Amino acid sequence: MSRFLDRFRAIVLPRSVLLVVLLVFATSLAVTATLVAGVGLLTEDAGLTRRLLTSILLPVLGITLAAAMLGFYLLHRIHRPVLQLVEAAARLRQGDLTTPVPAVRERDLSPLAEELEAARTELRDHLGKIARMEARHKAFIAALREPILTANPEGFVTGCSWSAQELFGQQRHIIGLPIQDLLPFLAGKPFGEGARITWQGQVEDAFGRSLDLEVNRTVLIEEGGSPSHIYTLYDVSHHAEASRMREQLLYNIAHELRTPLAVLQNALELLNESYATLAAEELRHLLGAALRTSRRLENLMTDLLSAGSIQAGRFIVNPRPVRLAQLVQEAIEDIIPMTETRGQKVEPHLCSKDLQVLADPRAVTRVLTNLLSNAAKYGPGGQPILVEAETVDGAVRVTVADQGPGIPEEQRAGLFDRFYRVKTGNDEPGIGLGLAIVKGIAEAHGGSVGVASEPGAGTRVWFTLPVVS
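^ thats the sequence. predicted structure below, dont judge the formating
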């Protein structure tokens, strides 16, 4: 447009002025020549003809000059508003909707100026309304916690929320990517029909974590435009993990129950079939096995009930002064069947045999039994298990130490959570409640728990109890 204006000024204006001057001058010459020729024919006097030519030509030239100036002035008056309107049209085309179209006084051009100004104001108001609507939509999408992606019918991403950028990473150019590059499981069969359908699958976020997602797609059909596909992403990792934990828990409970129930059933069958022929020693052995198995089942049920009570905040302890050595001895006797089969021995190292703690005897014995059972499971056969006690800041710290493979640092964070089991390659039975119960009981006494372990150097698990002064 600027090139057009420059060309208009450089070519059209000078040629227009020149044309006006030439027309006036030619007209004047023609009139002068006609008058002079007429006089010469009538008088046939050359001198008179020259005088007439001189006296007429000079005024004619003056009139020509005045006419040229007048023509220039008139062209300038027309040229200026035309240039103003051309410049205003150029600004509109370039997107400048803030500069008003100048008003012109020329009667023929003023309607054009008024229409251009009306078009500018309407376009400005319309674009402002669109910008405000778009800002509201962006603010609405940004306020949503769930990541949102929009895509065209061809499957290419056209927009995303901030949470979606955080999910997939700021460094990735999301816009323009195929939607299946971000959500590969969309290639699978969805759930549902019609405009709203759902997929479920896993993706890897910007930090390398695997997330379980549920993706809902809604088709938005706009008037006069192509439909937009809106994908809403829901992180269902917690639900998926809870479902996996529930399935694993049921499997572990079934596995834990199956072995002792089989032992108990075999003992009862032998007693039923061969009671009259069994020797006293054999009878004592079968009854002992049945009794230990029933205790194992009872402990399992107690763990499940205790874990549920602790989680629900309904676990209550009744502490009273009791000798710590007595609690340790009772726990050692409870796990004798396990330690004997593994050739292990529990060695207590207490700071004082008469040391008293403020504790619920049944609950604290359960804590010690759980810790000793874990030490026997994961400690090597034939190696001792240590129980140590020392006073620290007005409390007693009780530590159970084994010489097993240790716990890697990355697996210690959830060690005291329910149903959490350390992955050491040891296929020992268990449902992952022992340490969670230890923590719950210790905290119910106003104490705390902790662990110190290094791979290949064993594990030391401790808890504290109030000391009786």
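The first strand starts at residue 148 and ends at 151.
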